[in-house]
Amino acid sequence: MAKYLTLERLGQSAIVTLKNAPANLLTTESLNELATTMRSLDADPAVRSVVLTGAGDAFFSAGADLKQFASGDAVEADKVFDAFAGALRSLQQYRGVTVAAINGYALGGGLELALGCDYMVAERGAKLGLPEAKVGIIPAAGGTKTLADKVGVSWAKRIILGGEVVTAEKALTIGLIEEVVDQGFAKIVAISLANKVANQAPGAVAAARRLIEESGNLTLAQHLERERAAVRQLIGGAEQIEGVNAFIAKRSPSWVESGDD
């Protein structure tokens, strides 16, 4: 049984809740638990989406437990960074959809985990930032890239170099998050968004996700070739045939049945 998170199932969604009171700090152990949990969910075809949130009302996660860096031991620090890398890979390689439900503060490594999800919902009153430079380090779980990819270089510099912590409302205006909701509703709205993937064909979701994530590194011509190759693999498959026939018949598709053929 996991010590630093809880796992719930709701239909075809799983809710993973970070649990390390009071601030849901991230340690090597908690990050390894998250990676193991995500790999397990990825192997379960009954789970189409995952919501990541934090226990309590005040913190999604305040980031890494700084006690792990207090001695300045680079070898020990590397163990933490490796655990962050494993947790982020498990989120990014998950075949379905991941949604971060941000309740309260999402700082440092906590925000970096949220940035590893497909999209983010934050409650009014939530605060987001990457303040690592204040303690003499920098984001080392992808934050210097993932934040810049979402909000642009100028805002990434303002948040990382200036240590600015932004409100949920400001995060929405700069494109850091996708929706602001009332307090207490982040998880509910995130589950609703996550459940939408159940209407989509699993193979199409996985293929489209890969293409979207690769798009920034390709020219349009290169991307068109990747798209055509991907859609050729889908054409004639059980999901494609089921999806089209369901649409013509004006009924809901049965992805589980078609995926078992």
TrEMBL record:
- This protein's source sits in the domain of life called Bacteria
Electron transport as a keyword of this entry, yes or no, is no
Signal peptide stretch: none
By its UniProt entry, which InterPro entries does this protein fall under? Answer: ClpP/crotonase-like_dom_sf, Enoyl-CoA_hyd/isom_CS, Enoyl-CoA_hydra/iso, Enoyl-CoA_hydra_C
Enzyme Commission no: 4.2.1.17
Which Gene3D superfamilies does the annotation name? Answer: 2-enoyl-CoA Hydratase, Chain A, domain 1, Lyase 2-enoyl-coa Hydratase, Chain A, domain 2
Q: Which GO terms describe its biological process?
A: fatty acid beta-oxidation
UniProt keyword annotations, A-Z: Lyase
PROSITE patterns the UniProt entry points to:
ENOYL_COA_HYDRATASE
Q: Name one GO molecular function term.
A: enoyl-CoA hydratase activity
The EC class name is lyase
Q: Which Pfam families match?
A: ECH_1
Q: Which SUPFAM superfamilies match?
A: ClpP/crotonase
**Does Translocase count among this protein's keywords?**
no
Against PANTHER family, the record matches this protein to: ENOYL-COA HYDRATASE-RELATED, ENOYL-COA HYDRATASE_ISOMERASE-RELATED
Q: Which family does it belong to?
A: Belongs to the enoyl-CoA hydratase/isomerase family.
Q: What is this protein called?
A: Enoyl-CoA hydratase
Q: What organism does the UniProt record list as the source?
A: Chromobacterium rhizoryzae
